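Entry for FE2/S2 (inorganic) cluster complex. Fields follow.
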Amino acid sequence: MTKPKVATTSLAGCFGCHMSVLDIDDRILKLIELVDFDKSPVDDIKEFTGRCLVGIVEGGCANEENVRVLQDFRKHCDILISLGDCAIMGGIPAMRNTISLQECLDEAYKNGPTVHNPSGKIPNDPEIPLLLDKVYPCHEVVKIDYHLPGCPPLADTIWQALVALLNDKPMDLPYELVKYD
Amino acid sequence: MKENLEKVIKEICGKHGNDRSKMMDIVSGVHSQLGHVPGEAMGLIAAECKAERIDVESVVSFYAFFSKEPKGRVVIRLCNDIVDQMYGVQRVAAAFKEELGIDFGQTTPDGKFSLEWAPCIGMCDQPPAAMIGDKIMTWLSSDSAREIVRTLKECGDPSKLKHTLGDGNNAHELVQSAVSNNLREKGAVVFAPMELGAGLAAALSVSPTDVIKKMISSRLRGRGGAGFPAGMKWEFTRNAAGDEKYILCNADEGEPGTFKDRVILTEAPNVLFEGMTIAGYAIGSKQGLLYLRGEYAYLRAFLENVLAERRKAGLLGKNIMGKGFDYDIRIQMGAGAYVCGEETALISSCEGLRGDPKNRPPFPAQKGYLGKPSCVNNVETYCAAARIMEKGDAWFAALGSQGSSGTKLLSISGDCKRPGVYELPFGVTLKDVLERVGAEECIAVQVGGPSGQLVSKADFGRKICYDDLATGGAIVVFGKGRDILEIAHNYMEFFCEESCGYCTPCRVGNELMKSRLERIMAGHGESSDLRYIEELGLTMKTMSRCGLGQTSANPVVTSLKNFRSEYEKRVIKREDGMQPSFDIHKALETSEGITGRKSVHFV
Ligand SMILES: Cc1cc2nc3c(=O)[nH]c(=O)nc-3n(C[C@H](O)[C@H](O)[C@H](O)COP(=O)(O)O)c2cc1C
Ligand code: SF4
Ligand code: FES
């Protein structure tokens, strides 16, 4: 029997949620007995090789590439999980949502107190993905099946959730795993 | 200037005994003198009443009729509820805006006018309607709106506005109002003629406990909406520990589409006051309060006069009817907050606080106004009590249906020929009601106001009573061509505005419900949104702290239940998992403008 496949990605996130995935420590060995990794920074596979059971998304959508990747995940994954607060509600990157895009760029590349940019140019290489007007949480772009909150979510939370999904069992997240104060 | 302000505040606070529980009256007094309640005044009021400034500010900021910022000397409040929308309020609004040169929510630079939207002001049978100061103007058109502004620009005094006088006591010298009663059918209980003092005399001739026994055997249930057995409530309040007790009458009448208490207050105030006096006798209270919604301020002088006459006739005050019973009634004005109709919020308001509901238990019957046992009933409930004493419990119990004895006042408005108040026996079918009001081609009826249910033709055969179609009195008729989702949306806007904000399921739930509905209306909804609505509705119903949040999902939830096809035809079925509401091209527009290049991923 072939193992189910898992894909992961970090969009507008800080990789903290991926760190938390790695934080399951030696259980990672158990995990690769249970699943194969497809597209993921964990194994550096860049494009999907086939259908996946679970897609785990860190970070929200700040630019067009994030949107493209997220839509790709939706197309290839049966179950999509928003992992962590940035994926769920935009998080820190979404702090720019109350400020206009032009103002953000000016502050970042021209006016900010620590900026050294004698040319006064804002980077505009064709390789740079276009920014969206604001940062969107993942579920506003595609349908998301599960939200695992936390900044980042605890490794145990991620582990419990994954094991439950892979074994088709109800998710049993005790209070300690989903309380944040 | 400052000394002058101090003098004004000292005087107003002094008039109310520097009593912080009279904060509503104090703030209202200051507001009407200064046109607003500036921060400095709040500090002075707090000092006079030995309260904290925040106690004053929380009152000023909570009620729609109070303001911290300067307001125009005349505030125009135009009702924008669904019935007014149906009767062309937008044209009236445009005329006001143009004539005043300001938008809604603004004040003219000369400080003469403010223009505001208001939720239902209880004039749904004569829409579009507005409050011009305390003055009510009805059946507005763009012409009459212009006329109003022109007159006011000249004289600045709403009482000088020209209009025909309404019928009955609307023409009374102390009312002088344009409001019509539209009292279409009088029944045996509330609007039958009653000899002054007849009910009270009958009550005083038996013991207080016998009065309560009669109330119980009459099977009278509360008319304000919830339908709690009135006799039982009286008994609880009577038996509660404490010798100081209060009788509160709920005349807040804020549920959009309800205006029957307005007509009782205008035409049968003696029946009401008689009922409240009887309650005082039965329960063992010396003081009654009539909580009158701010929108009905135009009736205040008239009602005060009725009270004064009752005192003169020995029906209020000391030693009533020579039976050694002392009791009086005072009027407490509200200031534009729907939630204050909720009985515990009403008590908060009477106590001079923000209109926040309180936790239950303790119930008002145990610990109500000022912590004392209190009985809160609707206007119509007290009227029925007076009649029960006069004509007997058996007589009353024989009216209406088994589970719902007596008659019910229905306030009917919307798409019908004869909007107005109908007093009909309980058990009448909705179909019968619709025929009486001349509602042809009716597609939907909102029974019980927004917190009730929107019913379809399939339910027109059902009966108006507590066990079937329950209503506090509001019935709004919607004819052919009306958009069900639009109706639900208008009501959700109302609840978003009126939630007191204390608890999350209501404060946030209403907003989520409204925005999900908007998504569907914009054509971006999916079938899964319908399930979301049902689930959110259930959360709001089970998790909210008071009746407002427990019922505020109803406009959407009940219209979804009864008009599912209206929703289904507006949602998209998508299998690809993309959110139809997300528009990548729109999201990239700004960026493409700034960078001068086009997206490579999305062309
Ligand atoms: C948000 C809200 C608003 C209410 N508004 C009114 C009102 O305007 N008038 C009224 O009599 N009851 C209103 N009620 C019901 C009261 O809480 C209370 O049940 C009623 O006044 C009791 O009197 P009754 O038993 O005679 O009906 C409201 C309830 C809620 C939850
Ligand atoms: S349900 Fe709404 S109105 Fe009632 S307490 Fe909660 S927030 Fe306030
Ligand atoms: S007065 Fe406008 S809806 Fe009631």
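NOTE: The mean pLDDT of chain A is 94.
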